[in-house]
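Supplementary Text 2. Reproducibility record for the structural model of the 525-residue chain.

All settings were left at their defaults, and a single model was retained for analysis rather than an ensemble. We include the record here because the model underlies the residue-level annotations in Supplementary Table 4.
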Amino acid sequence: MPFRLSFFSRPFFLLLISGFCVSMGSDGVPQTRLTPQYLSANDLSIATGQPSLVIMSNGSTHVPVWSLSGGTVGQSVAGVLPGFSEDCAGVKVEIVVTSTDAQTRSEFEDVFRVRLSQMLEGEAFSSRSVLGTPVRTPLPEEAFRTRTIVVESFYAVEANRPLLVQIQREPGDPADTFARPVGLVLVKVTPLPQLPPPFVVQDVPGYNSWPVVQALGEKLVCVYSRGSGHTIDEDARAVYARTSTDGGKTWTPETVVANTPGGGEVTIGKGLDSSGAMLLWVRRIGREWNHDLYRTTDGVTFTHLATPKFDVIPIQITDVFSVPTVGLMALWFAGNYGDDGPCHSWGTLTSRDEGKTWTQNVVESELTKVEWPTEPSAVYLGEGRILALARTEVGDATTTRSQFQMVSTDFGSTWKRSKTNIGDVLASTPSLIFDAKTGLVSNYYYHRGHGILRRRVAKPDEVFDSPLNWSDSEAVAVGSAVTFDAGNVNATVVNGVHYLAFYSGKGSDTSVLVSATSAPGEKEE
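Retained model, structure tokens:
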């Protein structure tokens, strides 16, 4: 990395080494900041296949690029960065690409992904290898335009260790519809600071899991389930609650919400009624599946409100929200995780009497597993519009593994379902917060297997009819990378701060955690 010595009216120098910038003024006190590192085309070499290092030209401008085919699978290039500073917790990886082909049009998309592997002393250089998710983006309207693509928003690193960066195009992915070459110009790797640690809600021995969190005024109420493992029907599994009045730093003693003999109980959804009381859905599995609705005004004492019976028995009912002219609404889904279908369905529940009775509406039925939206989260945007996102049960490492988006323009009477560009997911349950003041919607989800709680932020008008327009993700918190022993984020808001409940651990020992992050502000135009 370069060394530069400069002199201004107040003497100082900059030392740039391994992504770490140290500035020292006349007071002799060092100040630090994280700076990006770059790999140009000439810094990269062939990793797999036979990509070509070529010159792309436009008039008198000539740019060296790696030409990655739109028809040949398995082409990639790689480079090594020397390491990062002590205050670097992770990195974001972006690539710059371009095309000189006359067929370049925005109706086409291409797909890229990154493989990252930090090389630790005494370990195999593949021991920290992580294959990123495929990222789809539309091409520009014409040739000679450049695009910057975020291929990974957070990869955890250790200080002062080399990082292998491998970039590959995925012409075999169903979303890559551009059959012509695309040129890789540059790789940018930006060091990221430490993320704030989450607050511990409960970490007693056992499988503390599947939390929901709800604001009652300025009080946080976190409700969760505990059993012996990742099971939902064991008799030992019960539901508990704790509250916090200091933003999640401390929590009141645990109280029992539900512990019915002969079955397991799991928290599945929450919300507010019109008076501001908290509603809580609890799934109870014994001889049959039941869904019990509880109500509380203080987060300590919960009163059973209803156990509605449905023609289609849901696997799960999710968060409650209010819709004008309708009343309370929640989404549900039904089917069989182990069956490829078509036997799956989803729909809405509505209540006009504050949750005492519910009407079930089937939106879609006889879906295959690939078509099936599960564990949805929804927000009412106004003027009859509802925006919902849902997780996918697809496990393939292609762009088909992305969250669903469902929208309604008539207060939930009819819906349109689409796939999104939110692909950094694995059994990732979304949780939405809509801020009417800023006009922004935040989508929180836990990337299982990677151990990252992510957020995407959008203006609803930019994604409502364009589900492939969701912004790049950002990391909010980190947890266990064990695939199913961590996850299931659920969000609420108090005074401009978003609180995110999730669980994290390994095997039969997991904890319920809450992270706090500032609500996103208005995006710059």
